[in-house]
Amino acid sequence: MSTMAKSRWADDTDDAALEAQLKKEKEERKRQKADKARKLEEERLAREAAAAQAAKAASQGEQGEGGQDDANNAPRAKRRRLSPDRGTPAAGPAHESANSNSDSKLLRFEGGGTFGRCRSVENYDKLNDIEEGAYGWVARAQEAATGKVVALKRLKIDTTDRSGLPVTGLREIQILKDCDHRNVVKLQEVVVGEDTSRIENIFLVLEFVEHDLKSILEDMPEPFLASEVKTLLLQLASGVAYLHDNYILHRDLKTSNLLLNNRGQLKIADFGMARYVGDPPPKLTQLVVTLWYRAPELLLGAARYAQAIDMWSIGCIFGELLTREPLLQGKNEVDELTKIFELCGIPTEDSWPSFRRLPNARALRLPKTTTTKSLIRAKFPLLTSAGASLLNGLLALDPDCRPTAKDMLEHEYFRQDPKPKQEAMFPTFPSKAGQERRRRKTTPNAPIRGQAVELGAVDFSGIFSGRDKEERGGGFSLRMV
């Protein structure tokens, strides 16, 4: 009887022994790897503990050697300050003296809700173009769902600039979202185009206001009455005071950026050059404010300035409301300075003590005579003494001598007769923004960010030649022969 042959593929005892040996070797390698990782972790913890103990010992040694005074005067090591949980009182005597119920806002982001996608600009139907400026174009539009008329401002964005949304656009959105004042235009929302891959499709939805002061002044057959000028100036000063109280500089106040609705309410608009400024103000760019409304310290290269530059612009607007044309229409920076000196007088160490320290003032050649004074009173003979005083203060060469917006609101000029006219009694005008495309004006545009201006050596010594032979009266000149 023959037995069945064993298959040559069957496992024998040698195969089983080899498999057991390989398994044992694999487990041993895994154990050695775990032991090595544990030893490395223990060495790292030991080094950190030794370093911390050495630092503590060194700190205690320095305090022991230097005494209590040195310990008090030594700079403390910087550490990150973390805000406590809401409603949890912080320990320490400093907190015991404070209100324990107050919430700490240190390093805490106060979110007013959840972030979501912006609405589409397709929710608005464009009606007509209004105007194009240095930082965007504005159109009149209507919300499709509600029929509400709004102003739609598209931000100008350089698609070749790899930095993305310009800082001017970010500042304008931030400031308009933060502002809530009856004399500041309201931002309703920010919308985007359907093609979100194109960064230039960003729009600001603003409240629609029928007029701007520039267009009204150009079309009026007669200038504003004195009572109407006072009402407009009071509203302008109120809005600017609100901005300055919240550390905001507008930096481009002019009549084309002041809107007026059919109820006599003025609103400050176009915050493309505005920014937050602390106290004291930091070093800022000099090329701000449209040329005809730019303060002399900016033209002379001041790197630090404050609210006084906005007050100079208000002075220029004041004069424009009286004459219906810009007060200082310079062709360039040098010509603008010439017109300022002709109207407001030549700066001296008495009238403007620090002007010679400005960068662009060192090379100026000024007349040697000191008899040239401000001609504002002669240029506006119908203005009352209080009105002339206010205009002289706003157009003071020395920025420290200009009144603040709050001071302007309390000026005697607004308490004299005729009293400011009620807003509801203001005349109404046909709305160019609502009916037709606004024609381009000859006024200069706002400065472009990044430009630089250097005056160089300029000779102003001859701008008053022959004036010593003139006698000036109320609004006329008489040459003596």
Automatic annotation (TrEMBL):
It is an enzyme of class 2 (transferase). Residues 1-106, 419-447 are annotated as: Disordered. PROSITE patterns: PROTEIN_KINASE_DOM (PS50011), PROTEIN_KINASE_ST (PS00108). CDD domains: STKc_CDC2L1 (cd07843). It holds the Pfam family Pkinase. Its EC number is 2.7.11.22. Residues 48-62 have a biased composition (Low complexity). Transmembrane segments: none annotated. GO terms for molecular function: ATP binding; cyclin-dependent protein serine/threonine kinase activity. One of its GO terms (biological process) is regulation of mitotic cell cycle. SUPFAM superfamilies: Protein kinase-like (PK-like) (SSF56112). It catalyses: L-threonyl-[protein] + ATP = O-phospho-L-threonyl-[protein] + ADP + H(+); L-seryl-[protein] + ATP = O-phospho-L-seryl-[protein] + ADP + H(+). InterPro entries: CDK (IPR050108), CDK11/PITSLRE_STKc (IPR045267), Kinase-like_dom_sf (IPR011009), Prot_kinase_dom (IPR000719), Ser/Thr_kinase_AS (IPR008271). It comes from the Eukaryota. One of its GO terms (cellular component) is nucleus. Residues 124-414 form the Protein kinase domain. Residues 21-47 have a biased composition (Basic and acidic residues). Keywords: ATP-binding, Kinase, Nucleotide-binding, Serine/threonine-protein kinase, Transferase. Belongs to the protein kinase superfamily. CMGC Ser/Thr protein kinase family. CDC2/CDKX subfamily. PANTHER family: CELL DIVISION PROTEIN KINASE, CYCLIN-DEPENDENT KINASE 11A-RELATED. This is cyclin-dependent kinase. It comes from Podospora didyma.
